Amino acid sequence: MLNNKIDIRVYYEDTDAGGIVYYSNYLKFTERCRTELLRDLGISQSNLNEKFGIKFIVHSLSIKYMNPAFLDDLLTIETNINNLKKASLDFEQNVYKIKDNSKIDIISSKCKIVSIDNDNKIRPIPDFIIKELNNNI
Questions:
Q1: Taken in order 70, 15, 66, 3, is the CA torsion positive or negative?
Q2: Is residue 1 scored above 90 in pLDDT?
Q3: How many domains, in total, are found in the chain?
Q4: Looking at 7, 14, 16, 40, which residue is catalytic?
Q5: Residue 74: domain span
Q6: Of 64, 91, 95, 129, which one is least surrounded by beta carbons within 10 A?
Q7: Which residues lie closer than 8 Å to 45 by C-beta, 6 or more apart?
Q8: Across residues 13-18, what is the average pLDDT?
């Protein structure tokens, strides 16, 4: 299974009036981790669009909120690719924090990404990306 982890500090701008991370910001955090996973494999999404006319977009998403995160927390975002198909990738992502040497789960999510062209038609993921992902799964 191909995976990646990044750490993100919670800033004031990430929180609501009560100092709790606003629910939609977890989508930003998980997006960053998916992007970094691809970047670590040498896959730049902007170059992919420029050279091949391909973009990755979110097809579907589910998220389960288990515990809140707060201002100044250090969160770990974990991303795993669970399934690779001709035109899609399935990711499982988790966000957690460590407090008093204990892991506290914040959210778990599943996200399906599809490959589209500049006319917004689903297109196969380029072969070199499939090969790179298969070499690392």
A1: negative
A2: no
A3: 1
A4: 16
A5: 2-136
A6: 64
A7: 35, 38, 55, 56
A8: 95
